[in-house]
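Hi V.,

Quick status before I head out on leave. The structure for the redesign project is tokenized and pasted below; the design run finished overnight.
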């Protein structure tokens, strides 16, 4: 047998972490890596954060799981916090980002269909989006590499150009139920939508009674310096999917909606065995208690600005490698003039610096939100050494 026990769907690298300490990961063989990937925007509080550990330990020792057939004081508490701090009136908890987007898609369809309008089922989504790996969420993306081998896709998605309002308008028709968009594309290359685009989608949704659905699985939960990125666009969605950072490393996601948007999500329409279990609620509560306040959010903005201005200075030293810096808060991307993937591997293997490659030849810089000056200094030491010693594969 040549297949590996772990189904070989990931191109796993040689880094094999067994322990985490704040902004570092320690490998099986003792090598220390600076972690500016954060499990892809997940470990907001870094690794081995005491408050998060003790919340999980206490809850694990008290009650881990019960059915959603019972009342949930733990779920009510976290949902109320999200309701208080966002546009939303109601929350469905999931175990992952894809499930949160899946619930958002169902909520948007049900908004129309619950009232008997079965003609409206299409969501307009945007080129190079990433919404997850379930059948519905791959169908929501135009990225063919994720479709290959999995046809037929789920019907009901049309792909417009990202950040292009006219392109979205052209696809609107009698079947349109709403728009599904990442305000800042993550996998697509840390590409923030413009204000005009986001405001334009809001206006189109308002004028045509459509749902504006945001996928903030990557850009949400304080990553960009506000609790959710939509706040920076001066708009509110009808439905929002959140996950990744919200559990700080514990699997947790949520679909947030206004009362109006959730009118189709009535008893018996949706469910999840694990979704909202007390252990996940304890993790989510500990994370939000730490990050959902002005002091923490402004510290993210400060750190983001410092990191960004230093990155902008830095890329000036290597004009042949880097084109520009983009993103918001601590969700930053370095768009490269050469392929970003081999450079990312070079930083990882030769300089023990972990980042994440993304589309559009972008290197994602996603440190834990608790990153300090010492780690930012260490990041620039490693990045500088990495850039100085780098020979792009094409050039050699
Ligand atoms: C990661 C991601 C998802 C999928 O989340 P999973 O937890 O992997 O299912 C969906 N949308 C966006 C924007 C993401 O970055």
């Amino acid at each position: 047998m040549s297949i590996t026990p772990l189904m070989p769907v990931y191109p796993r690298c040689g880094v094999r972490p067994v322990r985490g300490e704040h902004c570092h990961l320690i490998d099986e063989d003792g090598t220390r890596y600076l972690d500016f990937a954060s499990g892809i925007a997940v470990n907001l509080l870094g690794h081995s954060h005491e408050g998060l550990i003790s919340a999980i330990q206490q809850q694990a020792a008290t009650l881990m799981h019960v059915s959603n057939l019972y009342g949930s004081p733990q779920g009510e508490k976290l949902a109320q916090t999200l309701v208080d701090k966002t546009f939303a009136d109601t929350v469905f908890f999931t175990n992952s980002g894809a499930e949160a987007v899946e619930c958002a898609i169902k909520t948007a369809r049900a908004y129309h269909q619950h009232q008997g309008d079965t003609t409206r089922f299409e969501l307009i989504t945007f080129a190079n989006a990433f919404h997850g790996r379930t059948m519905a969420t791959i169908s929501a993306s135009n990225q063919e590499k994720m479709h290959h081998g999995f046809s037929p896709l789920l019907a009901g998605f049309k792909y417009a150009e990202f950040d292009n309002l006219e392109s979205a308008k052209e696809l609107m028709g009698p079947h349109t139920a709403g728009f599904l968009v990442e305000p800042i594309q993550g996998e697509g290359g840390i590409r923030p939508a413009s204000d005009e685009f986001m405001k334009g989608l809001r206006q189109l949704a308002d004028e045509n009674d459509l749902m504006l659905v945001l996928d903030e699985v990557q850009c949400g939960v304080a990553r960009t310096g506000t609790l959710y990125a939509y706040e920076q666009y001066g708009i509110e969605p009808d439905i929002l999917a959140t996950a990744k950072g919200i559990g700080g490393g514990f699997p947790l996601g949520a679909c947030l909606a206004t009362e109006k948007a959730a009118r189709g999500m009535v008893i018996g329409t949706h469910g999840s065995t694990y979704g909202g279990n007390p252990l996940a609620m304890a993790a989510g509560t500990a994370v939000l208690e730490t990050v959902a306040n002005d002091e923490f959010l402004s510290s993210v903005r400060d750190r983001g600005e410092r990191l960004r201005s230093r990155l902008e200075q830095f890329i000036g030293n290597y004009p042949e490698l880097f084109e520009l810096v983009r993103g918001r808060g601590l969700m930053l991307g370095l768009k490269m003039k050469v392929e970003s993937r081999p450079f990312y591997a070079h930083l990882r293997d030769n300089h023990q610096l972990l980042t994440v490659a993304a589309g559009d030849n972008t290197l994602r810089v996603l440190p834990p939100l608790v990153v300090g000056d010492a780690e930012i200094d260490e990041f620039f030491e490693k990045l500088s050494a990495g850039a100085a010693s780098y020979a792009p594969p094409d050039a050699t």
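Above is the designed sequence. The pocket of pyridoxal-5'-phosphate is lined by residues 96-98, 101, 130-132, 182, 186-187, 215, 217-218, 243-244 (CB under 6 Å).

G. will cover questions while I'm gone.

Best,
W.
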